[in-house]
Specification:
The protein has 295 residues and is an alpha+beta fold. Helix content is 39%, strand content 21%.
Amino acid sequence: MYHTWMRYFTPGPVHHRLGLVCLGVGLQHGTLPTVGPRTLDHHVAVVVSAGAGWYRGTDGRRTAVTAPSLIWLTPGTPHHYGADPGTGWDEAFVDFSGPAAATYTELGYIEPDRPVVPLADAAPARDAIARIARAARPGNPLLEVETGAAVHELLVALRRARADTNADGDPVLAALARDAFTPLSVAEHAARHGMTPAELRTAVRRAAGCSPKDYLLTVRLGRAKELLAATELPVSAVARRVGYDDPAYFSRLFPRRVGTAPIRFREQQGRSVPGGWSDRVPDPEHPPTIPPRSV
């Protein structure tokens, strides 16, 4: 026995320009029928939160699927999968498409070469899929935008939930961020971790979807923006604080990556904050409140 609920959508061309569109959503459990062999022209994320089964891809090998797990179905890739007839499984799936899927693949969020991905926890992904299911109510005028936004959220939740992801953050990225403002080469950063430069590149690419150089640049420019917006330090001093001994180089680099010169950024964003900005992130569940004025 099994239970199946599903809905399918046909977003218009304007919605595709948002980057991702949701084409369908389904919630199923039990001893479900086998899927395939088949080939699709779009992506599907299949989240198995309970039970077990199998997956067979282009190489013909049968891979065991044990909950919690994610099955990636990617465009043009033949696939065949199913729940164990003895145990069945609890499955939720989302069909999606759009130009942003290629970028998510480049960043490592979607993994065509690793169709079965063990998860540490399926709950956050199931929450995102539940939001898509709720948005699928009849007559919802925001259907395409709500479901498309939830697909972005789902991809982030799945990336964070991978079993090989450290819940406290990636230690290599944390160390790079800590040392980002020191004048070290990528090779010197790698040596600090007992890695070769190639091993460091692989680790950062897998964790952040970019090269070590780009990751360090992102950290440096983020801090430079904060200093430009919140302090009156000269641009040359800002450059040195974020690791650039040559202020002229920093002044050329900043507009290439940010789109505006440091001085112009300060004019647009600057706000004097005596003592600097707080490093403490407000608790979204208990935000600070402004006490009422006494009269």
